[in-house]
Automatic annotation (TrEMBL), chain A:
Name of the protein described by the UniProt record: Copper chaperone PCu(A)C
Top-level taxon in the UniProt lineage: Bacteria
Signal peptide region: 1-20
TM regions (residue ranges): none
Keywords for the protein's UniProt record, in alphabetical order: Signal
From TrEMBL, chain B:
Sorted UniProt keywords: Copper, Disulfide bond, Metal-binding, Signal
Protein name: SCO family protein
PANTHER family membership: ELECTRON TRANSPORT PROTIN SCO1/SENC FAMILY MEMBER, LINALOOL DEHYDRATASE_ISOMERASE DOMAIN-CONTAINING PROTEIN
Record domain Thioredoxin: where: 34-198
Signal peptide: 1-26
Pfam family, one: SCO1-SenC
Disulphide bridges: 74-78
Taxonomic classification: Bacteria, Pseudomonadati, Pseudomonadota, Gammaproteobacteria, Lysobacterales
Length: 147, 203
């Protein structure tokens, strides 16, 4: 009877381990938003560190402060032109890190629903392919904040 | 031993000659950015500034100007460039008074003078927002081979704008002098602008 207990624990814990969600294995840091005047679209940046042994895929993002949050990528074409495109998903490889940073990946935040100011922190929820979610604080910085 | 050292010295000497030959032009030109003197036309335009005033290039004679094309619905690359230029202006300190950053909108339908005013003042007091008729703006981008295009976006009514990311620098007489790309460091910009802006500096 006494001997059976540890095995019972393992039986309970192993499935939990196997079912660690993508949101559980991703550590988000350095979240910030470059706030622009008027109701211009703003860009959100964050570093995503996947500490798990399987890939995590970001499929969407949302915030109570914006009507629309999209995943974007800025790119420079061969002619030296700069443009943005929308991404359906962004994969963070196992034990890998992906940075959403100026002039690369960013969250495109449009149509603010509440007024807010630099110095505040707003939450953005990241949705992963397995249906898990991660709530991340983003520090609001002024337009001319250095990156 | 001695021979090896001699050989190495000889190699260094030849290498030095080669480098000197390659950098012959750079010895007299002090620039760290790309020198475009004589390769691009003088600054010329007739647009509207962010105060709603009609302006031409001659209004900026006497100022070193940095010409950059962008648009306000550009939350990533344009703000990054303008934030960098803000730091450059701060580092130039008093000399920055002799410089103007001309932020020309390639999205004149949406970028009114008022919209541009709010946008540029959020970055730096040395930035002037310029807008105008689509034809006048297109003429200016063509003049500096800074192509841009507009594609309909996925969301209703929105569209995406592709624009040149270079910064064209003109001296106080309106002559094209230097081109900075996003890869160029702030140090290079500060160095070259310092030279252009210093009294008795390169003119
Ligand atoms: Cu974007």
């Amino acid at each position: 009877m006494k001997r059976g207990v540890p095995w019972l624990w393992l039986a309970i814990l192993l499935p939990l381990q196997a079912h660690a969600t993508q949101a559980d294995q991703v550590k988000a840091s350095h979240g910030w938003i470059r706030l622009l005047p008027a109701d211009l679209p703003a860009a959100g940046y964050v570093t995503l560190d996947n500490q798990g042994s399987s890939a995590a895929t970001l499929v969407s993002a949302r915030s109570a402060f914006y009507a629309s949050v999209m995943l974007h990528q800025s790119a420079t074409d061969t002619a030296g032109g700069s443009s943005m495109r929308m991404l359906d998903r962004l994969t963070i490889p196992a034990h890998g890190e992906v940075s959403l940073a100026p002039a690369g990946f960013h969250l495109m935040l449009q149509e603010a629903t509440h007024p807010y100011k630099p110095g505040q922190t707003i939450d953005v929820t990241l949705d992963f392919a397995d249906g898990s979610h991660l709530r991340v604080p983003f520090m609001v910085r002024p337009a001319n904040a250095p990156d | 031993m001695k021979r090896a050292r001699l050989a190495r010295l000889a190699c260094l000497f030849v290498l030095g000659l080669l480098l000197t030959a390659c950098q012959r032009n750079d010895a007299t030109a002090p620039w760290q950015l790309t020198d475009i003197s004589g390769h691009m036309p003088d600054l010329a335009f007739a647009l509207t500034d962010d105060q709603g005033k009609a302006v031409t290039a001659s209004d900026y004679r006497g100022k070193v100007t940095l010409l950059y094309f962008g648009y306000t619905h550009c939350p990533d690359v344009c703000p990054l460039t303008l934030a960098h230029l803000h730091v450059v202006m701060q580092r130039l300190d008093k000399l920055a008074d002799g410089a103007r950053i001309l932020f020309v909108s390639v999205d004149p339908q949406r970028d009114t003078a008022e919209a541009l005013h709010a946008y540029v003042t959020a970055f730096d007091p040395h930035i002037v927002g310029l807008t105008g008729s689509p034809a006048d703006i297109e003429a200016l981008t063509k003049r500096y081979r800074a192509a841009f295009s507009r594609e309909p976006g996925k969301a209703g009514g929105s569209y995406e704008v592709s624009h040149s990311s270079g910064i064209y620098i003109f001296d106080a007489s309106g002559k094209a002098r230097l081109l900075a790309t996003p890869e160029d460091t702030q140090d290079k910009l500060v160095h070259d602008l310092h030279l252009l802006l210093s009294p008795g500096g390169a003119t």
